[in-house]
Amino acid sequence: MIPDTTEVLVIGSGIAGLSAALAAARNGAEVTIATKASRPSGASTWWAQGGIAVARDAPDLFKRDIAAASSHTSDPEALDVLVEHADAAVRDVLLDTLNVDFDADAAGFDFGREAAHSADRILHVDASTGKHIHVPLLRHVSAHDRVTLLEDTTAWDLLVTGTTVGGAWLESGDTVTACRAGATVLATGGIGALYGVSTNPDGATGDGVAMALRAGAETADLEFVQFHPTVCVAHGDPFLVSEAVRGEGAHLRNAHGERFMPDVHPDAELAPRDVVARAVEQEHERTGQVVLDVSPLNFSGTFPDLAALCDEHDIDPSTGIPVQAAEHFLCGGVDVDTRGRASLDRLYAAGECARTGVHGANRLASTSLLEGLVWGLRAGADAAASAIQVATRAADRSSVRRRERPTASARASASSASLPSRSAAVWRPSGVRRRPT
Ligand SMILES: Cc1cc2nc3c(=O)[nH]c(=O)nc-3n(C[C@H](O)[C@H](O)[C@H](O)COP(=O)(O)OP(=O)(O)OC[C@H]3O[C@@H](n4cnc5c(N)ncnc54)[C@H](O)[C@@H]3O)c2cc1C
Fold first, then answer.
1. Is residue 189 within 6 Å of ligand 1 at its C-beta?
2. Residue 361: Cβ within 10 Å count
3. What are the residue numbers of the active site?
């Protein structure tokens, strides 16, 4: 049942929301997580493939790679926070708390490398890292004494008084409840479902950004959308072929069998994602097809999960995996500072719905799980402190005025059922190569 009050309300149960809930609970707050997902696969986190990058012993090189991939549009202060907290956060949560079994051999972790990384620094579990992180994190956080997880529960709007956020309207079954909170953390993920072709799950409808905008919070960089260059669309069901496959030596070829990336960028297939995505889109249009030629590597031995996915989709990798560019990641979002604080009081955002400044215009591969983890922990800790302070001022709670309850028709028009008609309108002006409408 949805509670009327909670100290910290977290909206979303991907890596960002769960990390925020964990940190808030560790810092003594009572936490309610509302998530519209009924299964872990409702979050992009579950689908993550390549892995999670760490700094190892070269933090400056890591920062340089992220900044270069963004064409130097990322925010240096945000980069410092991400990189300086990366290894400690991964060690604390993923290794010491969850015991994630990252691929390793006798010499230690098998650090991978993906496009535009200049060092081997990516922890992974085969090419299905997300589920190996998400499932134990979900289990661990939902078992915490101070955490209540509400599944199949959708947040529709924030409760706002002036410039202060005091919780959200939550819907479960036929009931819509105003859940008042000392602090509210948006962790609703991306916007992929607004596009015709995306790697994201269907629930990635940009709800957190929309709620923040309606409440009057600042957003930034919403035009910075990342497209993944190697998405296989078979039988209308897109699946991502991780950059790690190109990292292991796979080549992109057009319909004439020509390898085109060496003429586009000195790093060829390992150029930054935006460069590869535009080239793939262009060759697709020019020649009619682009395939990922996996013959230079032992594909099924190195990527058994991807080989199984190809099999499920009747694709024979030995003849090349047909690929195209598809929406993948929102770099912008709710504008937050280094503690995840948004421009409205007691409102926080973390993960893909937040704009921390780390990614600038283009995200470096395998840095978003890390950003969700680091900012989730920071936002959760700060939210706990702010919520506990509010709770000591009882009068403050009663002063949070209820916003108008969202009507059934408003909820229906914002639901993913109305999305197909929108996706075509989104692709043309804000696709891989933008065209005027
Ligand atoms: C196929 C794929 C592969 C990827 N591979 C990698 C990778 O290898 N490495 C990497 O770093 N990143 C990768 N990414 C990106 C990364 O997975 C995501 O950016 C990251 O997981 C986002 O985490 P999040 O917690 O912000 O959002 P999500 O994990 O998407 O979670 C969002 C949550 O919010 C809930 N929600 C949404 N709206 C509402 C609402 N209104 N009310 C209640 N709940 C709501 C959803 O149900 C979900 O639980 C990949 C993404 C995809 C799709």
1. yes
2. 18
3. 273
Domain ranges (residues) in the chain: 5-222+331-420, 225-327
Going from the Cα of 12 to the center of ligand 1, the distance in angstroms, rounded, reads: 9
Residue 56 has pLDDT above 50, yes or no: yes
The fold for domain 225-327 equals Flavocytochrome C3; Chain A, domain 1 (3.90.700)
Q: Give the pTM.
A: 0.92
Q: How far is the CA of 130 from the centre of ligand 1 (A)?
A: 10
Architecture of the domain defined by 5-222+331-420 = 3-Layer(bba) Sandwich (3.50)
Please state, as a whole number, how many other Cβ atoms lie within 10 Å of the Cβ of residue 350: 36
Q: Assess whether pLDDT exceeds 80 at residue 2.
A: yes
Phi, psi of 353 (to 5 degrees): -80, -10
Phi and psi torsions of 10, nearest 5°: -110, 130
pLDDT band at 120 (very low <50, low <70, confident <90, very high): very high
Quick one: DSSP state of residue 132? H
* Residues 6 or more apart in contact with residue 160 via CB below 8 angstroms: 166, 215, 216, 344, 403
230 lines ligand 1 (CB under 6 A): no
Is residue 43 in contact with ligand 1, taking CB distance under 6 Å? Answer: yes
